[in-house]
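Hi,

Apologies if this is the wrong queue. I'm a grad student, and the batch job for protein-serine/threonine phosphatase from Streptomyces cupreus produced an output file that my downstream script rejects. I'm not sure whether the problem is my script or the file. Here is the sequence I used:
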Amino acid sequence: MANVGGEDAAGRRSRRQRADDALTTVGDAPDAPDRLRRILEQALVFARAALAAVYTLTDDGELLCLVEWAGAPRTQYGLRDSYAATGGSVVADAHHTGRPAYLGPRELAERAQSRRASAGDFHLAVLPARGQDDGGCLVAVSEHPDGFNAEDRDCLDLIAHALAYPAPVQRTEVGELPSNAFSLAMDTGRVEVGDDILDLFQIAPDEFDGKVETLLGLTVPEDLPSLMSVVEADHMSIGDRELEFRVLQPKGPPKWLRLRGRLLPGGEGQPTRLSGTVADASKLRSDFTDVARVQRLAASLATAGTVRDVSQAVVAALRTPLRADRIALAELENDRLVVTVLDPPEPESWPELWRTEWRTEWPDAPVRAMPTLAAALREGRAQIWPAGTPLEPALADVGPGGLAVLPLPAAGRMAGACLIGWDAPHHFGPDERALLTASAGLAGQALMRAHAFDAEHELVGMLQRQLLPRRLPQLPGAEAVARYLPSTAGLELGGDWYDVIPMPDNHVALVIGDVQGHSAAAATLMGQMRTALRAYAAEGHPPDVVVSHANRLLGELETDLFATCAYVDVDLEEGTAWCVRAGHLPPVLRHPDGATDIAEAEGGPPLGVMTQAEFPMSPLRLQPGTLIALTTDGLVESVEADIDAGMDRFARELARSDPAHLGLVADALLGNARRSDDVALLLLRYDGMELRPLRESWTVWRVPEAVGHARRFTRRTLRSWGLVAETDAILLVVSELVTNALVHTEGQVRLDLTLINSRLRVAVADTSPRSPVKPTSIGWEATGGRGILLVEAVSATWGTLPVSGGKQVWSEIQLNR
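Support response: The file is valid. Your script probably expects a header line. Output copied below for reference.
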């Protein structure tokens, strides 16, 4: 068994010697354009650094400016582009005194050197650079709990002596560009481009307008975020950049291009410029070294948000260069190893024990079943077993030709392990050992951060789901589906919501809305607004009144947030709808013939902006088969297209859908949704009711014969409907409910009769909010209270519900038909 990274003297000499050899190799090419970065990369491998950077003095001697860095993004640790040479920073002190400084989290917090100092999770080293007389500093960051040990400091000292760097590049006048070069002014977006680059983009030189947006528009949309991080100054820092992206071709697949550029600080009155080259990546020789792979791994882990992202980044960084046959990465949870990524993913590629523990997507197995692995985790060092080493079957079958186990340390504990196996006998060279050791430390720290992110994200998702409907109601003559996608950009709660509210008389209210911002306050307000709209709708108010009440309520909640909302009241019997918009997107209608249109629904202001506001109602006419689609701006608005173009695209995608399968339609519409914002989507397909109820209404006037008039109206209606058998029972219910309304309330009384199938509904509405109370007992001498008992006795069911301006008492009677 070979042990990587031993602590004995021979091991120390070996690491220092390997670093010295690597620096000598880099020094043999003094004119290499990336020589400085390659020197810094040695700190990532041999000094266990997460980041290494070099600062040098400007010509006027006033600033120490960043000229190059390698590893994780410098903003992750609060490092600046420059420090005042006469200031009190650690960089300035090391430059003046000529002595190295090593600071832990406590010292960083005391000096307030970093915006992240309060996190207490990294160490900082600053060494004077010895390679040039005019001064400069090497800055390195370590995330290991014990910081830089003696070996690490020896290697950093070697690297500081090897540094010979240029002064900060000053802008020169742009002259004739090489054919493969470009120069971009970061303030205006104007770009000068060589003819070879225009040829790669298939643009004639006389047709190019000099705008960087023209070139970005020809790239594959999925590659735009990485390109925007380069061409937007806010995302850049001084130094070299390299990335690959795809450009669209008139025929055939997109072409891969490689951009290499450097951000050059502008002089007085001059803009910062990005200068570099673009070449056909398929014609370039791969010059990836193991050091470069560590740098790429560090960069990818810095942006990995979840445990799965971290695992996939590690597998992508290691499998190809190591020519491994299997890689597994797993988290350590108590005494079990929970696998997060397997490559290859097929169960038959892994040992029998792993297959028997394959409970979900990936297996999880007890560590005690693999004692050799347990020992490696306790020791906490990367270990390698060559072909033929006797191991338990659960490990031997992972790598019969060689096995490497990388414990992933983080914050004083083991976060997990990475297992790498080969089928054919494999020779482990020193470069591979260095790559494995460096990767283990990076992956462990990233895994711990991602695990915390996953836990918080799950909590956020749970809270979000609790604020949205658990399920949508079954509707007569219609079907509704909804989708919600939380944002993956950070852990903030979103304010998007939707609701489907069944109402009396076969009406249904569709609601979708968006509270301003992404925060706990926005989510809380979203829950309040959803509850308020549901309550106002249940009271029977028309749509404009419902939205007006919600607007007034939001204005009284003393919040600085506002909300947008679209409310659609659909009459499922008549196939009509009324739409009210409060600063929200209009509905999109897909008609039975496949044509779509964006409803021309007049809108009012967002909720909470004006206390007194008008919210006009706009009619919508529906035919059986019409699809109503409501969404939030997260689905249709992006940096590439404005909201009108997004709505047009949304309408076109809806036209191509098959409304017979609403769930598939919703999934397809969300297929290209951006995840930088949360998204809500609500769809309703109106099919029309096969059997429409029969309805009649009567306004009960307050005259002595009012109850008799109501009875005669009921008898006439029943006769016209062909109902004679249950007339006496129905008339008894009408008499009691109308009498109660006339005696115990004031104002208007209305009688509604509804027949559907074999059930008759008698409903009496009045202007009093008080519901009738069923008496618990009635004595012989009592003069009232028996009416409700009689209604209950002859009804299949009865109850009360609030309506606009009062209540409705109803009774349903089962008919023998």
